[in-house]
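Predict the assembly for these three chains.
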Amino acid sequence: MDPNNKQQKIIDSTNGIYVVDAGPGTGKTFTITKRYSEILQKQDITPEDIFLATFTNNAADEMTERIIQETGVDPSKIYDAPISTFHGYCKKLLELYGYDVAQEIGINEYITEDLNTIESHLRETQYFNNFYSQFKQENTEYNSFYSIIDSPADLLQLMKNLASRGIIPKEEGWFSNTGRHIEGKPEEFKKMLKSQNKPVNTDKGYKKQSELRRKTYSLKWKNFEQNAPEVVDIRGEKGSKKIREDLAKKAFKEDNEELRTFLHDIYYAYLNYSLQNNFLNFNFLLIFAYLLLYQNKTVRDNESFEYMMIDEFQDTNEIQLKTAMLLAKKPNICVVGDWKQSIYSFQHASIENILNFEQRIKDYKKELNYDQERIEFSIKDLEEINLDINYRSSQKIIDVSEKSFSLPANYYESLKKPEIESYNSHKKYDESVIEKIEAEDEGPAILSKIQEIVDNPDYKLSNGETPSFSDIAILTRTRSFGVELQEVAEKHNVPASYEGGIELFRKDPAIILLAWLRATSQNSAKGWSVILENAGYNIEEVKNMLNDEKDLDVPEKFIEFKQKLEGQSTIAGFARVVFDRYGYSGPIPNKTIQVLQNVFVNSYLNKKEIIEFIEENIDQGEIYEIDNTVRENSINIMTLHGSKGLEFPIVFISDINQSKFPSTNSYPKPIDFNEVLGLRQRKVLSRESGNGVYVFDNWKSELLFNIVSREYDEERRLMYVGMTRAEDHLFFSANSRRKSTFFTKLDVEEGVIDSEPVVLESSDVSRDVFSV
DNA sequence: CATTTAACATTTTTT
DNA sequence: ATGTTAAATG
């Protein structure tokens, strides 16, 4: 297939700075691949000169494959080419040149080739907890902060947040003045306060209280310290339309010096601790790579690229963009993305990267050049190109998807008409069915609808075929709803595979492994009871065998096996022996071993730590991806996030229910960061009438956080991502008693559901190997 | 009757 | 902590 005009323009425009607005189904990967091979054909250009950043490792592999197909280039030459995620590239960079980069911020630790990247969130939490208790003992001057923090993991999250914004501590103060970002933005704050505190006009000309005053009602339930102003003082008496702005401004000016010092010190100490223990999380990996490129001209000259392309640009964060700028030798930069599909802000992606690209790179250039010239090229000929032909969806589906941005997230949110450029469908197909269905029992209703669709010529697809199970995807906001749906499908013998991983450590292999780890270390009775009950002994028999803690009376064969296990020196060996004995094989035991091996790499068999790790995993229901779960002809169930980049003939968007989608979940954090407010503490320690010291809510920050309230644009974008996965037919489903405004205010025809779903003959289905 | 208050029900996404 | 909704208020 030949590129269309806009695509061709992007392919030909190899030199210069380009922002490509690539909406869903506009042939983004196709265009990037072609552009890559176009650049490759230039004289003296090899794959080593082109940096292509992708969002996931899978995307990097896929891109590489397609480039090999497209160019016919020798695969061995492109295999080592910098086509990778930022994380992957930065890790390589640090291993090559990063040995003493930490010195730049005063840390006397070294990065070596066996640096570990922490991929397990739980494992890092373990590390962090160890670090935290040590830090607390050594830094008693921050006692008042420790008493307001109930979960250290919140602090860790905060540091990662700062790291993704390029805020980096030095031994004294902040690196390159980056600490100013945690002080907040007074001008923006004043603007927000003003607009939030305007009384609201109704259609009939009445004036309601301001949005802000309505929200501050909840302050009433807070527990403020004695000298805090009364809530009626802040909000005004009944009938006041606005809150008192002078108090809000006073709250903004709260002295946070000590809090910032505390965060600086613990952040710095944790970076130090990480390197001491030879590990970095994803976020810290990026800051050290950034530091290296920032400070070392030689590395920059050696490593920078003639050409740079960044895919999924809407999901990059600030430090990634800065790093990319340091890596660009020339102004040959092409960023490709779609702001409408930016859905990873919880992971600190910054949508401003793409929305304000030009302003950002100009600002960053200034910032990066303030003491010496690091960005040598000039930023002037910046061009925007938008791809506007959609090759995926029918026009009807495209039109509906654009309504995502007009969906209010609650009963009082009023939205301005969004400015969305429209896409034209390349497809002639015009028989799309777009319906919403609701029922008291949502799962069976979806199944029933699917059974109606499958093999039904009324739902003919654009390729001329009648639908089969594998043409259908069910998208969910939460994982748990997806798992529920899979179970409902299983009960009806409808083939459905849940994509997105399983609770690995709650499966049998891990349970038995944990039991043997326990049986061969302290607290062995806990392990033995699981082992013996699993072997078929009843509770009474087990009790008798374990009666005497010091002299267990278990059958000889168990003792022999225990001795065999005690000879193992690595967790992988230990687990392998257990799984072999129990006959566990396949992806689940393999993945279990792989995870443990990755997490406890280099360390001798420390059973206590491993047991804690597994316990924590079971407790938290931690999710791990399993390979090869794909089945023949089955429905695909996945989260909306997981569906990014994919397409299906038929899509269901499910669980559009209150508090689920849009998600209204939010956890209170004692210390919080907001771009406008800066760093704030929401709890304070105070002495109540002489006696003890108590934790109170901080009226200042509680008031402030009402002003920078949460927005729901990302939930609407998530809806947009979901809808635009569909090629031919699109369905929405909700629980009739709990449906959210995303469902009720969606202007789509209501569908009918035929009674209950039928239970299929089991011979119709291929079995799911993981469901046993 | 429009507006405000108070009580009640829920509670993620993951490179 | 936040949204929904029924009851209270003036």
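The first strand of chain A starts at residue 17 and ends at 22. The two ends of chain A are 45 Å apart (CA to CA).
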